[in-house]
Amino acid sequence: MKQLTSGQIRQMFLDFFQEKGHEIVPSASLIPKDDPTLLWINSGVATMKKYFDGSVAPANPRMTSSQKSIRTNDIENVGRTARHQTLFEMLGNFSVGDYFKKEVIPWAFELLTSDKWFGWDKDRLYVTYYPEDKETKELWEQVGIASDHLVPAEDNFWDIGQGPSGPDSEIFYDRGEKYDDLAPDDPENYPGGENERYLEVWNIVFSQFNHTAAGTYEPLPRKNIDTGMGLERVVSVFQDAPTNFETDLFLPLIKKTETFSDKRHYGDNTTDDIAFKVIADHIRAITFAIGDGALPSNEGRGYVIRRLLRRATVNGHQLGIDGAFLYQLVPVVGEIMQSHYPHVLEQKDYIQKIVKSEEDRFNATLNDGIKLLDDLIQKTKEAGQTEIAGKDAFRLYDTYGFPLELTEEYAKDRGIKVDEAGFDQEMEQQRNRARSARGSKGSMKVQRDLLLDIKTLSEYVGYEQLTVSAAELQDIIVDEQLVDDVKAGTAELIFDRTPFYAEMGGQVADIGTIYNEAGKVVATVTDVQHAPNGQNLHTVKVTGELKRDDHYRLEVDRQFHAGVERNHTATHLLDQSLRNVLGGHTEQAGSLVKPDYLTFDFNHFGSVTKEDLAKVERMVNDHIFAALPVETVVTDQKTGKEMGAIALFDDKYGDQVRVVKAGDFSVEFCGGDHVHNTSQIGLFKILSESGVGAGIRRIKAVTGKYAFDYLNDEEKMLNEIAQTVKVPTNEQAPGRVKELQNQIKELESTQESLEAKLANQEAQDLFTNPETINGITLITGQLENANMNQLRELADMWRNEARSNVLVLGTATDGKANLLVAVDEAHVKAGIKAGDLIKSIASNIQGGGGGRPNLAQAGGKNPAGLPDAFKAAADWLATK
C-alpha cells in the first residue's frame, strides 16, 4: 500500500479526472446559494443540481471536485462509530449528458488499481450492483473484477422520488481478517453488510431514468454520471487506520486536545476516546462553517454551530479541560487542510475570535449547568425513576443554554431518559408568555381588516412644525369599530394633518396633547403607529369629547421631541464614527432612539476594546463641538447614493428619499427627526457596550442633560471613594485604591499560607493512620482549616509520599461541605475509580460531583454528613 497523506490522496483523485478531460471545480461554500431546500451543502452533487436539472449548462460537461459537506442528522453517532462525521469531504466526478457506464467503470478501476494512481490490489475490491443492471456487472468483469467479487443488491437503485434516478454500483475494500468483527458465518459479514472488514469507499450512480409523477421510469435523453467517494474513508484505507479518526485528518487535532486534557490520552478508555473524537470532528465543522460565513445563533445554521460547539465543550469538560480550548484547535484544522483550503489559515484569527467568544459565553454557565444536571440524574436515580422531568430539562435550556439534545445525550450516558414532551410543553408556555408580554400593540393585527378599508389621507408635518392649530379629525376607532364620537377611555384617531411622528426606523413615536377649539384638553397622545394605508394612527387617552369632522389643536411634547432629535442625530454620528474606528464591516443592525437614551446595534464580532470605544466617543463629541449644520435633502434614491448616503434597508425606501447630512461627516437615508446643528446635542457619553446576538453588538449612550447628569454622578461617586480611602483629592484616589488592593492581596496570601500550614499539620496526623479494607489501604479525615484548593494540594502530597491506595478528605466551610477522593495509579488500573467513589458517597453531604479516575471532588450542603461519607467510602471499598 502506498504511503500517502490525505492531501496527496485528494489531489491524486482530482488529477486523475483532470487527465480524463474533467474541469476541477473548487469546493463551494457550505452555505447553499439559491437553494432554500438545503440548510447546508451535504454532498458533492448538491452543488451540481443546477447542471443536472438543466437550468444551467456547464462550460465543460465533465467535472470533478472535492466538496466539503455537513450533515448533522445523526450527530449522536459521532465518536461512537468508526465513520460518522458532521463535516466530511466528498470526492466526485460528474458527467452531464456526456460519458456513461462504458467510460466511468474502466476509469474507476484504473484509478483504484493502477500503480500510477491508488495502486490497490484488485483482489481486495468487491462491487455491488443492481440485479437487473446486467451491463454494469459485465463491465466490471471486463475490467478485471472476479465474478465472485460482484454482489447483487436490490437496494442499489438511487431514487429520491420524482426526477432523475437510476441504478448505482458501490465499491468496497476488503481490509483483511484483522478487521473481522463478526463470525465468518454471520449474515452481515459480506460487502454491504454491517461490519468493519468490508469498507464502502465509492458509489457510482448511473442516472438514466426520469421518475415521472405517474410513477413510471422513462429513459432520460441525456444520461448522467454522479459519483461520491468519502475522502475520510479512503484515507483510512491508505493509512491502515481502524477508524477515520486515526488518520492525518483527525489525529493532529486529537493530539493537540490531549495537551489540554490533564494527563488523559487517546486510547486510554472508551469514554475518553469518544470525547476526543467528538471534539476533533466538531471543531472541523465549526471552523469551516464559520469560515464560509455562518455565525453561531439560536436558529438555522447558527444553531447547528452553537450546538456543535457546546457538545464539544461538554466533551472537553468530561476530559477535565477547564476554560476555552476549542479556539486553539482552529489553526490545527487550517494546517491539516491547507493544501486544498488555504482560506482557513488566512481566516484563523477571525474564526478563533468567534469560537472563543462562544466558548467563554457557554463556559460561564457550563459548570453550574453540569452540576445541576448531575444532581438531577442522582436524584432521579435515588427516587427510583428513569426520566428527568421536562421542566428540569427546560430549566437547563433556559438558564444554562443546554440544548435538549445535549441534556438527552449526557443523561443517556448515565442510563437516564428525559421527558421530551414535558420539555416541549414548557417551551410552548414560554412562547405564550412572550406573546403576552408584547402588549396591546398586537391588537393592530386584530384591527387590520378595518384599517385596510380606511382610505382617508393623513399628512405628517412634524419636520417643520410641532403644533397644528386646526387638524380635522377624520376617523375614530373604538373597540375595533368606527364611531362618530368618543367621550372617555382609549381610542385611535386619524387626522388630516399631524405633527406627531409615527414610530419607525428605531425612532419612538411622539407623545403630546390634543385641544379642542375652546382650548380645553380632550386627549393625550400615548403612541402613534402607521396604519396599513400609511396614515399616522394616534392612540389616545380620552379626557373630553372628540367628534369626527371637528377640528383640534395638536401639540407635540417639545421636550420629549427635542430629546429624541438629539439622540437620533447622535446615532448618525455614532454610526459613522464606528465605521471610521472599527472598519467598514460595521453596519447598523438596529437602533432605538428615545428622549433619554439611545441604543445602536451593529455588526461586529467580539467586544469593542475600551481604547476603541474611547476613540468613538471622542469622535462623536468632536463633531458635536464642531457645530456642524444638519441638513435634509429630499431626492431620488440614485442621487442620494451618489451623495454617499448610507442605505440601511433598501427595500423600504420609496422613489423619493430623505438624505440627512451632518456636515461632510455623516450622510444617511433617514425619515426621522433631527437637530438643525450638531451643537444642539450638547454632549455624548457611552454607557455600555455588549453583545446581543451572534456577531451583533449594542452600544447604549446618552446625550445632553442626561450625559451631564451621568458624569456628575460619576464625580460624586469618585468624591465618596476619595473620602473613604482618605486622600485629599480625587486624582489621588486611584493610586490609593491600588495600594489598598496590594495590601489585601498580601494579607490574603499570608492567610492562605497559614491555612495551608494548618491543613498540612492536620493532614500529617491523618496520613499516619491508614486502615486496610479488602486489601486496599484507605485514609479518611475531616480538616477544619482547608478549602478545596488546599485539599487538592494535600492530595498531591499524599500521592508523592504514597501514604495509601485511596484518600478521602472532607472539609466544612460556611455551612457547606466539600469532599475529595484520590486513587493511586495502580488501583485506577485495577478498576477503582475516584469518579465512581465520589458519586457513591456524595449523597451523604446532599451533593453531587465527579471527576477523573484518579481524582474527583464533590460539593454539598450538609457538613454533618461528612462522617457518614467516610464510612460509605469504606463500605464501597469493601465490595471491591
UniProtKB/TrEMBL annotation:
GO terms under cellular component: cytosol
Keywords for this protein: Aminoacyl-tRNA synthetase, ATP-binding, Coiled coil, Cytoplasm, Ligase, Metal-binding, Nucleotide-binding, Protein biosynthesis, RNA-binding, tRNA-binding, Zinc
GO molecular function: alanine-tRNA ligase activity; aminoacyl-tRNA deacylase activity; ATP binding; catalytic activity, acting on a protein; transferase activity; tRNA binding; zinc ion binding
UniProt-listed Enzyme Commission number(s): 6.1.1.7
Coiled-coil intervals: 730-764
One annotated GO biological process: alanyl-tRNA aminoacylation
Binding site for Zn(2+): H568, H572, C670, H674
Keyword Transferase carried by entry: no
Keyword Amino-acid biosynthesis set for record: no
Catalysed reaction, written as an equation: tRNA(Ala) + L-alanine + ATP = L-alanyl-tRNA(Ala) + AMP + diphosphate
Pfam families: DHHA1 (PF02272), tRNA-synt_2c (PF01411), tRNA_SAD (PF07973)
Localization, UniProt: Cytoplasm
EC top class named in words: ligase
CDD domains cross-referenced by the UniProt entry: AlaRS_core
Signal peptide: none
Cofactor: Zn(2+)
Domain Alanyl-transfer RNA synthetases family profile per the UniProt entry, residue ranges: 4-713
Family designation: Belongs to the class-II aminoacyl-tRNA synthetase family.
Domain comment quoted from the record: Consists of three domains; the N-terminal catalytic domain, the editing domain and the C-terminal C-Ala domain. The editing domain removes incorrectly charged amino acids, while the C-Ala domain, along with tRNA(Ala), serves as a bridge to cooperatively bring together the editing and aminoacylation centers thus stimulating deacylation of misacylated tRNAs.
Function: Catalyzes the attachment of alanine to tRNA(Ala) in a two-step reaction: alanine is first activated by ATP to form Ala-AMP and then transferred to the acceptor end of tRNA(Ala). Also edits incorrectly charged Ser-tRNA(Ala) and Gly-tRNA(Ala) via its editing domain.
Protein name: Alanine--tRNA ligase
Organism listed in the record: Fructilactobacillus cliffordii
